[in-house]
Design goal:
Bound molecules: D-MYO-inositol-1-phosphate, calcium ion
CATH superfamily of the largest domain: Fructose-1,6-Bisphosphatase, subunit A, domain 1
Helix content: 25-40%
Structural class: alpha+beta
CATH topology of the largest domain: Fructose-1,6-Bisphosphatase, Chain A, domain 1
Mean pLDDT: 96
CATH architecture of the largest domain: 2-Layer Sandwich
Shape: globular
Low-confidence stretches: none
Number of domains: 2
Length: about 260
């Protein structure tokens, strides 16, 4: 794969997809539910994924696409070049708030993350990385994350997890919330990851994410020294869903050891 050429192409189609999504607000968006009443999808999610598939196949028909909406072929291995795409991450924000939703793309070659993109469609802000070369926020390079203490950390977590639940020990999460400087919840995993890699958040915790939520983000994470794992401290498996913690390297292990206890 010619990395520079694919990078240029990826940015072109991201910006074009962004334009199409912004234009979609001028006509009716059709909203449906998926696995439950709060799991939303729209015609725009599907149209955007189809747009990416057509463009990528036109660029190189050997590249495969693993997209959230399943509009491409079935992908059950990461052999060759695979694009992992979430056409709209934060669909509820898209529908309800008309902002704070991202396009997330990770380009993998034989299972290794090579190019990562998180694009804030309404702000027209791009976070991206080229493996081994660095990470950028638009035209500015992102610096390595600086050490900090847990008391200084601002973390992304959904308020559900401080209430009794069957996934984790919520008392430990209460302890974490009391220990850190502040908490935030943005409603788009890709946005929260983009904030961690650029130091606007110091950690983000999720009980269940899919490959397309984090495919782009984990590639950017590596370039700035953020650590991304599941709750067992292992690398995320890009062919299934898993628990997820991304954090500044100075607090990642501490959060796993002291504050996360799965049931
Ligand atoms: C969702 C968002 C949300 C996260 C969910 C994801 P979607 O993605 O990233 O913040 O908590 O787990 O499924 O459905 O809007 O693409
Ligand atoms: Ca998503
Ligand atoms: Ca999505």
């Amino acid at each position: 794969m010619d990395v520079k050429q694919v990078d240029q192409f990826a940015k072109e189609i991201l910006f074009e997809a962004g334009k199409r999504i912004r234009a979609a607000f001028s006509y009716d968006i059709e909203i449906e539910t998926k696995s439950n009443a709060n799991d939303l999808v729209t015609n725009i999610d599907r149209d955007t994924e189809l747009f990416f598939i057509e463009q990528i196949k036109g660029f190189d028909s050997t590249h495969r696409i693993l997209g959230e909406e399943g509009m491409g072929e079935k992908v059950d291995s990461l052999e060759g070049v695979v694009w992992i795409i979430d056409p709209i991450d934060g669909t509820m924000n898209f529908v309800k708030q008309h902002r704070h939703f991202m396009i997330s793309i990770g380009v993998f070659e034989d299972g290794v993350g090579i190019l990562g993109y998180i694009y804030d469609v309404m702000r027209e802000d791009l976070f991206y990385a080229i493996a081994g070369e660095g990470a950028w926020y638009n035209d500015s390079s992102l610096r390595k994350l600086q050490p900090l203490s847990i008391n200084e950390a601002v973390i992304g977590i959904n308020a559900n997890w401080v209430t009794p639940n069957n996934k984790i020990n919520h008392d430990k999460i209460i302890d974490l919330v009391r220990t850190v400087r502040g908490t935030r919840s943005y409603g788009s995993a890709a946005m929260e990851i983009a904030f961690v890699v650029s130091g606007k958040l110091d950690a983000y915790i999720s009980m269940r994410l899919a490959p397309w939520d984090i495919g782009g983000g984990t590639i950017i994470a590596k370039e700035v020294g953020a650590i991304a794992t599941n709750f067992n401290g292992n690398a995320f498996d890009f062919l299934t869903t898993d628990t997820f913690l991304i954090a500044n390297p100075s607090i990642h292990q501490l959060i796993l050891d002291q504050y996360i206890e799965e049931k």
